[in-house]
Amino acid sequence: MDRAGFDSLFDMSDRTVIVTGGTRGIGLALAEGFVLAGARVVVASRKADACDAAAAHLRGLGGQAIGVPVHAGDIEGFDALVARTVEEFGGIDVLVNNAANALAQPLGGMTVEAWAKSNEVNVRGPVFLVQAALPHLKQSKHAAVLNMVSVGAFNFAATMSIYAAGKAALMSFTRSMAAEFAPAGIRVNALAPGPVDTDMMRNNPDEAITHMVGGTLMKRLASPDEMVGAALLLCSDAGSYMTGTVVIVDGGGTPR
Question: Looking at the annotation, which residues are catalytic?
């Protein structure tokens, strides 16, 4: 490897990245990382004003960015998201399925409505968004899909079974996508965060947060920015021989 090859490993210049749930928390941190690495970024989220604000923030970092309001469970909206991205930037190179629904109900007290709402965002949405973007990913020379899952997919998940099971399902889809799309040159991986200091985390009771932090070796919440390095590895040429795998970023809390 020469200097040019080394410098290109994490370089995302001239690549277009869609990040769902990209207006706050981990999603916004990832969007910032991609922009700073040279990518054109499309942030998608439910609220138009939040999308506009996030895109303006990313442009303030010196990048090209737009926001497209779409709900992660709205399959009909995915075609519009893909079309707007291609219209603005000419294609799609990377898709990051980050949007999530953290609904929590105990076994024995689940409702059909909660199950459906969680599944729509955590499983069905990511799978069908990949399908919508697939023709454009196939045209990219650097195509990658990153599915954000959770260490909950590996661990005991009392009261969080709907969420954990959805993330486990998305992890399974990650492996199947990797196998099916490899001949087309599309890599598909997952990133499994542990406890991260986000609004979603802060919606938990203090004792629940303390319990999750206590289960890590590092005994602290992660910053959303600490997910950026692993995401860039999986989506850039630095991870060119990685597909069908899950990278755990959890402060040392999930032995495997």
Answer: 163
